[in-house]
Amino acid sequence: MFETTIAGSLPKPSWLAEPQKLWAPWRLGGAELEAAKLDATLVAIKLQEDAGIDIVTDGEQSRQHFVHGFLEAVNGIDFTKRVEMGIRNDRYKAMVPTVTGPLSLKGRAHAAEARFARAHTGRKLKFTLPGPMTVVDTIADGHYGDRVKMAFAFADVLNQEARGLEADGVDVVQFDEPAFNVYMDAATDWGIEALHRAAAGLTCTTAVHICYGYGIPANVEWKATLGAAWRQYERIFPALAKSRIGQVSLECRNSKAPLELLKLLDGKDVLLGVIDVATDAIETPAEVAAVIGEALRYVPRERIIPCTNCGMAPMRRDIAAAKLIALAAGAKLARERFL
Q1: Is the pTM value of this prediction over 0.85?
Q2: CATH number of the domain within which 284 lies
Q3: Each residue of 49-89: pLDDT tens digit?
Q4: Nearest 5°: CA angle at 306, between 304 and 309?
Q5: 229: part of which helix (H) or strand (E)?
Q6: Reduced to 3 states, what is the DSSP secondary structure of residue 254?
Q7: Per residue in 120-150, pLDDT tens?
Q8: Are 55 and 124 spatial neighbours (Cβ–Cβ below 8 Å)?
Q9: Is 247 helix (H, G, I), strand (E, B) or coil?
């Protein structure tokens, strides 16, 4: 009960990439880089295990960015043809590659790190992929001419990788869709169906992560414009409750999203964000347990999986490590209090 996990990413060691920076360039190259990525993956797994996390990830140590790390393994994308584009409804700008032809997978994207992680932990293993809607919001289109058509093309490529991850022994495949909190109408019109296409045929646990973004200034500033109650979840939860995705990962700690909205996810496991990744303040076990206790008013206890609000890639490593310990300790306290 109250098994713990994280949204996906952890900070990279300073010998691998520049700390506290998204899209940080690698500090090594060639065979040395590939070996270092796996070394960092092992560190990430050990960090989670030592903290007491039950369902571990690879920490996304082999990816510069949660979307572009996957795109590097896809044919039909030109990384030399980068353009500046507003993403997440122009919340911030980024230099993104361009789709220039039909999409196909170059064999596999994440087989090496998934198999390595599986070989080095006996715990349940979760692996994250970007969701189709978030992918098309993070890349320029120079080929398809239609956002929905391109999203479904990406969904087919993602499905190929997801099936491979399941064959590698991954227990949970999670698709990250922060765009669902920005384009709510599109999420219900076609985003969830694209997600179904990406998850088609999987027999392992499937999850979708929907948050308000990394704890970077652009996201913090955007949240300040959302008012006293963030009700984006209200517009997509009913459709997600009817979806074929098994788990929904949410931002709850220090969030203004009313927890009563969790009732709209009836029948789904809730990866409950109890750790705030937008602050360096370390949660106490009591604070973590309090969020779990509040969620119990709306979600059956057997469906709550305490988690982080979002990825921890841009954080200081020592802060992230301390937050992992707080997450596990808070879940333990919640078991004592509420079971």
Answers
A1: yes
A2: 3.20.20.210
A3: 999 999 999 999 999 988 989 999 999 999 999 999 877 76
A4: 120
A5: none
A6: coil
A7: 999 999 999 999 999 999 999 999 999 999 9
A8: yes
A9: strand
